Automatic annotation (TrEMBL), chains A, B:
Biological process, per Gene Ontology: carbohydrate metabolic process
Domain Xylulose 5-phosphate/Fructose 6-phosphate phosphoketolase C-terminal: 593-794
EC number(s) from the headed UniProt entry: 4.1.2.-
HAMAP family named among the record's database cross-references: Phosphoketolase
Identification of the protein by name: Probable phosphoketolase
Gene3D superfamilies associated with the record: 3.40.50.920, 3.40.50.970
SUPFAM superfamilies per the UniProt record, alphabetical: Thiamin diphosphate-binding fold (THDP-binding)
Keyword Cytoplasm among UniProt keywords: no
MF GO annotations: aldehyde-lyase activity
Species of the source: Nitrosococcus wardiae
């Protein structure tokens, strides 16, 4: 294919004049990129470069920049020619100079940041502030107009691109994939996203593998395998690879122009056919391999070392300019080789004949509203979550699986928002008992079908449930979907959400920064349901036990993080409704899928979730007085065991005054000064007392509670129980016993904490221990918990 | 290829008798797998199945099990025939029945667990305890003889396999990759590991993609693309795929036997040639696609639904046996279809003619010492780390980059252990300033070379530095290397070690369990160097700032986790030496690569690291008395700023008595009852006082210190400063100021905490604030910190 394209390219499609202009535009971009990396003054080279024009520290990466600009401006040509609706995703790390340059030249940068406009002073600031303290980042940070993908951590460009393309039939997302980035796991599997893209309903993704051969100090794998292997690889991934290879700018401009035209024509042909026939089969989508030198057009050789086309030009090809006049001269020659005097007018503005090459208005990729997705955000049309609740006439009497009603709520949310909401989960939607959604929409599937799929396959090309066994890809899709203004919900096993810790970190940082950028409109929140929790891994064992994602979440900015642990169906519904209405947050909901006791009717649930924490009067007997002990449950299983402990204590000590608290909103525990949801100290003290023992039964690792509450008055009496890496294949009660969060351990804990019970309680403690042993023995004998445990109810 | 193999297969290579025997052995395996899932009694079906023979809960996965056994016993055939040295890695989740069955039949299970030996009672226990509380896990857990790969979290089978093969020229690692698992990012990029395997020095990996078509409720992607795409994909990844496809056992036995012979012959041919010629070029290694039905040989149809070959047989094909006599009958028929009465003798032991099919002794994959790598562990021949130290005549006077001396220590470690030690890092060894190692050994590279590689490429087919831009693959390789008894060291950027949070979790859990398994010998520790830390991201910005890996680490068992923050070169060397000598731990060392002040000479460093925490007398002026305040530094940058704050305070308040502490071993802060390195309360109190303010300057998120120290006497006076998600592109001091860990903020903090200074300190606070503002303004003007900050020394 490459040979064909190349020979065609040499003939056309660019006229001589077009060729001259596009090359001049590219020179202007490259000039800016070098200027950003090196200069703090003399931006138009009005005088010979002097040491004081050079920044003290040289940062930013030249290597990938010319290639990024090259792609960007060739896309511009096609956008303009065909009035395309396109956005640009830059995968390569530190490639911002190659993106910021065309963004500046098409005028958007100066529109957004008027002090860096299209004049000499604007250019000087633009150069100086790049990769400078307090200035412009070297990735495509949230401050970059037109960016939905920072690229600070590598691997997510392609899945972000697909997320942006879903339900945007008119949009083409150009995704430049760095060949370093291509080695990451997240990227390597994201190529398979083409099995989830529907040519009728969705837009297109046009990946450009930027094969410039080197990472920081290493060749890239994909640049060092045979052409045949590379070709096979992408064909195997289901793409048609088009190769644009070389270093001669003239030939490369022609080849790129021809190849892009061919790819876009192919995309349009495929879409037109699918949309005309209504048959959404999986096409082999086109993708481009752009094989060009690292640091293209930069110095060929420096101090006897190969520079262009080698890893040495990955970052900064020339350095030490302040002490090395030869290098300073080379830099000036290099910059002048781009002929700035021809491309910029006397004021430093791109000359009109080149300005005319860029698209206008919202067609400029840096001004496309899809890349500032909050602008396009439509509120979800939500059904009334109250309609999905369970009847709870008396607390703690019936058992219901907690997630299926949520599944129905999500089902109807999906029906009402047929182009604006998707559910994501790694092959676990049914396992997590949310399968009611399939009544509204099936699982997206554009790969092959077999006859048996008709019986329970739940697959459809127009499905809206996204399932692939890659948390990375799902999270990337969802982020791309949210960043372009749509809504989503991610349900996953608790232990394995850690697979995307780092993706969460990066997205939370993106949101945190975005909150301070006035022109970025808020986007829908990233909503996680963490289920199949640590406590119900009856046969999955130790590897599946890890409630530590919350510990990762609390490290991120309190302006964007929220954590909820609803104990039953109605609280889960209320919380989910709240999360789906919110924006610019990461909401983490922890709720198990198995049967659990139901505590609150819908009105009580709403009230409880609104406060986030509260006394459960029906489980407390300290009414109107100070309690002897405060018992707290946070999380479904933790709440049940804390309640059962309360009941056991009441049996043994009728006069013991126990206050029972339940925590739904984890951040209520921290100070109001630390998090917007934090309780005031006065409110905290009135709930937790200032001097009574608190037994806090927590869903997760116990230390997290200390971390949140260590400044509270009564912290010294706070005794937290939670998961502490004990257990393996266990019944629920047995796992609780191993980690001392079971009813018996908690009740004994209370007795130990109350001086008045030290003597009177000895007999009770013995009885509780005996019972605990009996229960454990039963589990080992019969493989399940005793019926009296399994069927336990709150005693009325 | 598949057609050729198939037609050959129909003719041979198995004689009729061989075919009959191997099929019988497979039937015995399948019988055991079904028995494990269903039965708690009547293991040999001596009487018709009754409801009480069936377990209360049916757990474990049937779907993948017959395929796993099929592969296992065909490998056995070749091991025996050719005396191969092989181990088996089972990637598919919950596939343990398919592995435990042949492990039991070859006698190893009973040797290791005598109460589950080869007789009726042993088999009964073996069945009953599978996936039963307190019993045998449904993954290949550490308790499984012959396993180095649990598979509880998917995606790491192939990288583990490569890690095991490195430096084991005689070993073939058979790695079964589940087709669900194949969708994960970690697995998708691990196929490229073949560019890092040297046919002379290393063993071979024989991947078998177990294409049985389904995950929990979904088809797998690789089963639903065209044969041509699948073939291209693996060719593109650099493998030669051999297809074994079908469901007829007879044909499949012949095809598998033929294909395995061909693959092993190809492996041997490639190795022989490379070893004969001494030319280690990259061959196209063989791999197998085993396309067989999910739940192969199980019920074809249940209640009108397709079962064999569909997702419905992923877990348990038949259920409700206690209430459904028809299902109970089907189960019995299914089990009897394997003809147990023919294969097991009256006592329940496999008949001798079948027993003879398995290899003997250590050739049994379940008894191969490589899979209990601690048995083969040789201590590293370490150079004397003292020889790499820096001279520190006076504390805090000279600046040295902290990591390069470690690089030299690692270089000589590598030289002295030419087949027993490797260094791992994602394209960052030079960036992390460990590049001295290249003097001992280059980067492993079996992909293509270009002429320019000769100038600074540092590539070699026999390199021992492993670099690929996939933290997942590196971590997987390293784990595989350690689990087979060799040593390694992983250096990586701090923010991006989160990419492998979950892999760390799984490995730490493996170690934790292994410590309680008497027959598992301790393996070398997993050593991380976390560098390019949060505090020195001058141009990388916000995305590169995350010191939260430590928060993930502390959630894991204290028996296997260790965290060190050496502040300078000599402490770093002392800590690294300790880590390289340890076993069964995960050691996390945090140390920045940039220039830092040097504090301790080698003797002092060793003493300090041995204690893990201590008073720095030279920086304290409370000698022999109770201090007014305790200042603590933990981490390189944190220590420097805390020292500078101490110096500032001394300038302003000559009589203020400051005790300066430095913490290297983070776990000293926690109670001795919580971690083996925890200080006793008495020791803690004597260092931290019981009532004086403590200003604790920490490298990471500040709450971690509270989490560790919340039970200590003086916790109420503990004020921790650390990273709190503030900053972006900043100079080091500016970033510190943003997060209030800088010298000025700390000094002001101290003044605020000491009542006696409330009035006297007002002027000093103002001066400190002015200076802080001046420093920040300078950074924004010049792009670097003021020289007086950059060149700050401890005042003598």
């Amino acid at each position: 294919m490459s040979a064909t394209v190349k020979s065609e390219a040499q003939r056309g499609p660019l006229s001589e004049e077009e060729l001259r202009k596009i090359h001049a535009y590219w020179q202007a971009c490259n000039y800016l990129a070098v200027g950003m990396i090196y200069l703090q003054d003399n931006p138009l080279l009005r005088e010979p470069l002097k040491p004081e024009h050079i920044k003290q520290r040289l940062l930013g990466h030249w290597g990938t920049s010319p290639g990024l600009s090259f792609i960007y401006i060739h896309l511009n040509r096609l956008i303009k020619k065909q009035e395309l609706n396109m956005i640009f995703i830059a995968g390569p790390g530190h490639g911002a100079p190659g993106v910021l340059a065309p963004v500046y030249l098409e005028g958007v940068y100066g529109e957004v940041y008027p002090n860096k406009g299209e004049d000499e002073e604007g250019m000087r600031r633009f150069f100086k502030e790049f990769s400078f303290p307090g200035g412009i980042g070297s990735h495509c940070t949230p401050e970059t107009p037109g960016s939905i993908h920072e690229g600070g951590e590598l691997g997510y460009s392609l899945s972000h691109a697909f997320g942006a393309a879903f339900d945007n039939p008119d949009l083409i997302v150009a995704a430049v994939v760095g060949d370093g980035e291509a080695e990451t796991g997240a990227l390597a599997t994201a190529w398979h996203s083409n099995k989830f893209l529907n040519p009728i309903r969705d837009g297109a993704v046009l990946p450009v593998l930027h094969l410039n051969g080197y990472k920081i100090n290493n060749p890239t794998l994909l640049a060092r395998i045979s052409h045949e292997e590379l070709d096979n690889l992408f064909k195997g991934y289901g793409w048609i690879p088009y190769f644009v290879e070389g270093d001669d700018p003239e030939l490369m401009h022609q080849a790129m122009a021809a190849t892009l035209e061919q790819c876009v024509a192919e995309i349009q042909r495929v879409q037109d056919e699918a949309r005309r026939t209504g048959i959404p089969s999986r096409p082999r989508w086109p993708m481009i391999v752009l094989h060009s030198p690292k640091g293209w057009t930069g110095p060929k050789e420096v101090d006897g070392h190969k520079m262009e086309g080698y890893w040495r030009s990955h970052q900064v090809p020339l350095s030490g300019m302040r002490d090395n006049p030869a290098h300073l001269k080379m830099l000036e020659e290099w910059m002048r080789s781009y002929q700035p005097e021809k491309h910029f007018d006397a004021n430093g503005k791109l000359i009109p004949v080149l300005k005319a090459l860029a698209p206008a208005g919202h067609r400029r990729m840096s001004a496309n509203p899809h890349a500032n997705g909050g602008l396009l955000r439509k509120a979800l049309r939500l059904p009334n979550f109250r309609d999905y609740g369970v009847q709870v006439p008396k607390p703690g009497q019936i058992e219901v699986e907690n997630t299926p009603p949520l599944g129905k709520f999500l089902r109807d949310t999906m029906s009402r928002n047929p182009d604006n909401f998707r559910l994501f989960g790694p092959d676990e939607t049914t396992s997590n008992k949310l399968n009611a959604v399939y009544e509204a929409s099936k699982k997206t599937w554009l790969a092959d079908y077999l006859p048996e799929d008709a019986d329970g396959g739940e697959l459809a090309p127009d499905g809206r449930v996204m399932e692939m066994l890659s948390e990375h890809t799902l999270e990337g899709w969802l982020e791309g979907y949210l960043l372009t203004g749509r809504h989503g919900f991610f349900a996953t096993y608790e232990a394995f959400v850690h697979v995307i810790d780092s993706m969460f970190n990066q997205h939370a940082k993106w949101l945190d920064i975005s909150e301070d950028i006035p022109w970025r409109a808020p986007i829908p929140s990233l909503n996680f349901l963490i289920t199949s929790t640590v406590w119900r891994q009856d046969h999955n064992g130790f590897t599946h036990q890890d409630p530590g994602f919350l510990d990762v979440v609390v490290n991120k900015s309190p302006t964007v993080t929220r954590i909820y642990l609803p104990p039953d169906v109605n609280t889960l519904l209320s919380v989910a409704d709240h999360c789906l209405k919110s924006s610019n947050d990461v909401n983490v909901i922890v709720a198990d899928k198995q049967k659990h006791l139901q505590y609150l009717d819908m009105d009580a649930a709403i009230k409880h979730c609104t406060k986030g924490i509260g006394i459960w009067d029906w489980a407390s007997n300290d009414q109107g007085t100070e309690p002897d002990v405060v018992m707290v449950g946070c999380g479904d299983m933790a709440t049940q065991e804390a309640l059962a402990a309360t009941a056991l204590l009441r049996e043994h000590f009728q006069n013991l005054k126990i206050r029972f608290l339940n925590v739904v909103d984890l951040y209520t525990l921290t100070s109001a000064s630390e998090h917007p949801h934090g309780l005031s100290d006065r409110d905290f003290d009135s709930l937790f007392t200032v001097d009574k023992p608190i037994i806090f039964n927590f869903h997760g690792y116990p230390w997290l509670i200390h971390r949140l509450a260590y400044r509270r008055t009564n912290h010294r009496n706070l005794h937290v129980r939670g998961y502490k890496e004990k257990g393996n294949i266990n019944t629920p009660l047995e796992l609780a016993i191993e980690n001392e969060v079971d009813r018996f351990s908690l009740a004994i804990d209370v007795i130990n904490r109350i001086p008045a019970l030290q003597v009177a309680g000895a007999h009770a403690k013995e009885a509780l221990r005996d019972k605990q042993i009996e229960c454990r023995n039963y589990a080992h004998e019969y493989g399940t918990d005793k019926p009296e445990i399994r069927n336990w109810k709150w005693p009325l």
